[in-house]
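Hey,

Quick one before I head out. I ran the complex with iron/sulfur cluster overnight. Inputs first:
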Amino acid sequence: MSASLDKVSQTLKGVIDAPIASYFESCVHCGLCAEACLFYTETGDPKYTPIHKLEPLRRVYEQEFTLLGRLKKLVGLSRPITDDELDQWQELVYDSCTLCGRCSLVCPVGNDIVYMVRKFREGMAVSGHVPDGIRSATKRTVEIGGPMGLKWPAVANVLRKAGEATGVTIPVDQEGADYLVLLSSMEIVNYPEYIEALARIFNKAGISFTVASDAFEATNAGIQIGSSDLAKVIVSRIVDAAERLKVKYVLSPECGHAYMAIRWEGPNLIGRPFGFEVVHVLELLDELRQKGVLKMKDTFKDPLILHDPCQIVRRGGVLQAPDALIRQVAENYIPIADQQKWNWCCGGGGGASAIHTEEAEALRARVFQIKKRQIEEAGVGTMVTFCANCRIVMEEGLDHYEMNTKLLGLTELLAEHLED
Ligand code: SF4
Ligand code: SF4
């Protein structure tokens, strides 16, 4: 065996831990995970069966950790994994897995396939098999501060404009504020109306908040690329700012994986509990609703459906707040069949939206058909969501299918109808 072949296998061997071993051993090959994955349901291609996406990792597990596998390898019945194979496998590990977690939910033996894909990505990242779009987004986040390369002066300019539009000055680096507000670059660039909405609601509710000039970015490309070291650098930036400014809470924005990264992965990444609490913006808004602070002057009349972002709802556990908030503002809210923990992904989570090859974009358009059907079956002209990444991916899908569906952010919708 050549040194480079051995290196590839050894790198993948390094990411196999006890949970991964037990998941491979437990799989009963029932195929239920396929029916839960939008890449399979929308294409019918068996290569998109979730457990199959992990095949190179399974082969290394078998070859390195089982007696039969070692024997098969010895007599040449099982081939070592090659660099070329991992290159080809990028499509199955990155383009066609959004880490949405729907497959993990249906697996009868409890295999956490998202965990497995994440570990496989770790091996892919170390061995240099990461799509360019995700690699460069991660590099920009670590070196400049955010995946889109936004620098603080540009962000400060957006905050200043939001202040002018709302008459509410957005505090920066204010020590002792209750909330440190995080933003995602996608919101800053594409949906600054989210920032205006927050300013309006916080002003009305009398909430003290601040933005940190050295830690405004919520997204964590390190998690998407599959590198715990980079993910730790990005999380530490937020933790340092929150502790320096002595805030009580860090507020995660309308961004799915940012919430998972800071709320659920963060303390493990830095190896200690936070000295503050992490709250998702919808959790805070629902608390305000329950206290009677989030009163509406009127309601949104057109029939609409809600798209639940996977990382906030199914994986993040913010299950009830979105439903309660949409009912607060929408007169004709139509709950769809697969909602909350059973929602279908937008097709661009887990870093997939950062991959801009022709094939990846065609696949995203194909799997968007599931959202298209949901909109058509409900017969609505409006869809609401609360993740900037979902929103941009779904806008592309709507454009692709030339649909006139209006796409709105939940926080903005609430702010628009907020009592004066
Ligand atoms: S996490 Fe989602 S996209 Fe990835 S394999 Fe499972 S169901 Fe498919
Ligand atoms: S659902 Fe679970 S047990 Fe069934 S094939 Fe998929 S991973 Fe294996």
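The radius of gyration is 22 Å.

Talk tomorrow,
K.
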